[in-house]
């Protein structure tokens, strides 16, 4: 349990009628605008910032918050690009013989290497629309990953 203690402000004390007791008024905000509340009795005070990530991001410098946001998006694009690459590799989408065949359907059209998987990951996560790279019905895992990446993208955008 977090308790807040304030510093007594003696200049706001009313004149005492008794000589034995002096009353103190505690202000939450001082006249100069500074906060007069300080957390005390906080167990593992340093870990409270990790537990309350929203306050931590709001309190950090803006350049660090922007870096955190950019790195979060870049990490998610890269992680999903690896998953798209694994699906395409397992399905044989990178084999030249299958790409030239007219009766074969890839998991995602126009995926040729990791770079195209990364670009498709960005397009899919931000729902910018599919240009030439689109998932097909040939792979249920591609359809499933499209849904998962869309959900993760919405959660990440709302958190950032």
Key phrases:
160 residues, mainly alpha, Helix Hairpins, 2 strands, 49% helix, potassium transport, ion channel, potassium, transmembrane
Report what the structure shows.
Residues 29-160 form the Potassium channel inwardly rectifying transmembrane domain. Keywords: Ion channel, Ion transport, Membrane, Potassium, Potassium transport, Transmembrane, Transmembrane helix, Transport, Voltage-gated channel. Its main location: membrane. Belongs to the inward rectifier-type potassium channel (TC 1.A.2.1) family. The chain is mainly α and 160 residues long. The protein has 2 domains: 3-42, no CATH class; 61-159, Helix Hairpins, CATH 1.10.287.70. It has helices at residues 48-51, 53-59, 62-91, 96-100, 114-125, 140-159, and strands at residues 3-6, 37-40. The chain has a two-stranded antiparallel sheet with strand order 1-2. The longest helix has 30 residues, at 62-91.
Question: How are the elements arranged and paired?
Answer:
Layout: E1 3-6, E2 37-40, H1 48-51, H2 53-59, H3 62-91, H4 96-100, H5 114-125, H6 140-159
Helix pairs in contact: 3-5, 3-6
């Amino acid at each position: 349990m977090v308790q807040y203690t304030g510093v007594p402000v003696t200049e706001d004390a009313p004149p005492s009628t008794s000589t034995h007791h002096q009353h103190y008024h505690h202000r939450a905000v001082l006249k100069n605008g500074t906060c007069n509340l300080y957390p005390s009795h906080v167990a593992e005070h340093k870990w409270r910032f990790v537990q309350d990530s929203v306050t931590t991001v709001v309190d950090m410098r803006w350049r660090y918050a922007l870096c955190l946001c950019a790195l979060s998006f870049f990490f998610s694009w890269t992680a999903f690009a690896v998953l798209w690459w694994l699906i395409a590799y397992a399905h044989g989408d990178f084999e030249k013989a299958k790409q030239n065949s007219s009766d074969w359907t890839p998991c995602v059209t126009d995926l040729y290497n990791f770079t195209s998987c990364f670009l498709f990951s960005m397009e899919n996560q931000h729902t910018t629309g599919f240009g030439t790279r689109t998932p097909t019905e040939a792979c249920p895992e591609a359809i499933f990953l499209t849904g998962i990446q869309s959900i993760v993208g919405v959660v990440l955008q709302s958190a950032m």
